[in-house]
Amino acid sequence: MRLAVIPGDGIGPEVVSEAIKVLGEVVPNAETTSYDLGASRWHSTGELLPESVLGELAEHDAILLGAVGDPSVPSGILERGLLLRLRFELDHHVNLRPGRLYPGVQGPLGDPGEIDMIVVREGTEGPYAGNGGLLRKDTEHEIATEVSLNTAFGIRRVVSDAFRRANERPRKHLTLVHKTNVLEYSGSLWSRIVEEVSLEYPEVSVAYSHVDAATIHMVTDPSRFDVIVTDNLFGDIITDLAAAVTGGIGLAASGNLDISGRNPSMFEPVHGSAPDIAGQNVADPTATVLSVSLLLDHLGEKEAARRIEASVAFDLATRDQASPGTTTAIGDRLAALVSSNAAPRPAL
Ligand code: NAD
Ligand code: IPM
Ligand code: MN
User: Fold this and answer.
1) Site annotated as Important for catalysis: where (predicted)?
2) Does the N-terminal or the C-terminal CB of the chain have fewer CB atoms within 10 Å?
């Protein structure tokens, strides 16, 4: 197994090194190559993602990324030039973001019941496509546009992926989240394609929620969600909220998948570089460890993936919620659990 690792900025390197520690316990022969990309490379060379590096990354089985973004770099330079460029170049059209409230985790909602959802966020289109510009620049009447790109091909492939996932889950329920009451053209294309693909999955029940209402439901009744399919920007926003209601951003994992398998998929925590806590050994590495579990699952290493998830579940059920420990202490605990195989299996 050949993995490319991009620790990145802020807490990225801190959480990634714990995740690699855990990985080493389940797949000791995994070969990892670290790529120095992010703020420090940009400062010293002006480079974001050289073509040669992109070519090398593409040769790996998968990529593990910490986070990018740094207050010393103008906002968006690293995010667009590195992270989004990787997602676009490697055709990461399915941005998979599970939101699960693990037993023992005290979220902010009191007693919300079971929360176990998967958000299938479109990853290469929407307003992220960079389709916009400025008119009448530097005048009183300057105009900024940001056109959301929605192709039938792009929608169909994520909607199909979401239905496949829903069909394999016990509840077999899929919710389209959009804003069809305002976004006339993209809204009707998404709705039509969901309707068309639903015919192939007669057992999957389908619901629709406007994105604003979805934020209400995410807080007042999150257990209603099973699989959510949505566009790139709505998916970005609701997955931070899903993370918040399932115990915090420090626990939320994600995978950027090229379902065709032509390019390596990339796994990363949902959170960013958290400059406010960087360098203090206080970031929770659990989201990155769970991202490694998603990575292994994607590469077909189901048993290894399950061992990591079971260890995280065990740790979450038994840790002191108020002070879960330092970044390295949590990493050490998870590595020990994974290696001793001590975590009880049926908990999942
Ligand atoms: P953020 O996710 O970095 O931080 C939001 C809040 O969550 C902060 O209070 C932070 O301390 C906390 N937090 C984040 N991760 C945590 C962890 N593992 N453990 C404990 N607390 C954690 O979001 P932001 O502050 O909006 O963005 C900071 C930078 O990261 C920006 O440059 C942004 O563009 C970038 N960013 C990058 C990614 C990515 O690389 N995938 C994702 C989101 C944001
Ligand atoms: C995320 C982040 C990114 C996004 C940013 C940093 C470009 O917020 O991975 O959720 O908007 O997708
Ligand atoms: Mn985000």
Assistant:
1) 128, 179
2) C
Each residue's pLDDT tens digit, 217-229: 999 999 999 999 9
Give the position of tokens 């579940």: 313
**Nearest atom of ligand 1 to the alpha carbon of 12:** 40
- DSSP letter assigned to residue 251: G
* Rounded-to-integer distance, Cα 209 and Cα 215, Å: 10
Instruction: Classify domain 107-246 by CATH number.
Output: 3.40.718.10
Per domain, the residue ranges of the chain are 1-92+285-343, 107-246
Residue 35 vs residues 8, 59, 325: alpha-carbon distances, Å: 8, 13, 28
Mean predicted lDDT score pLDDT of the chain: 96
Q: Which residues line ligand 2 (CB under 6 A)?
A: 79, 83-84, 236, 270, 272
- CATH superfamily ID and name for 1-92+285-343: Isopropylmalate Dehydrogenase (3.40.718.10)
Mean pLDDT of 136-155: 97
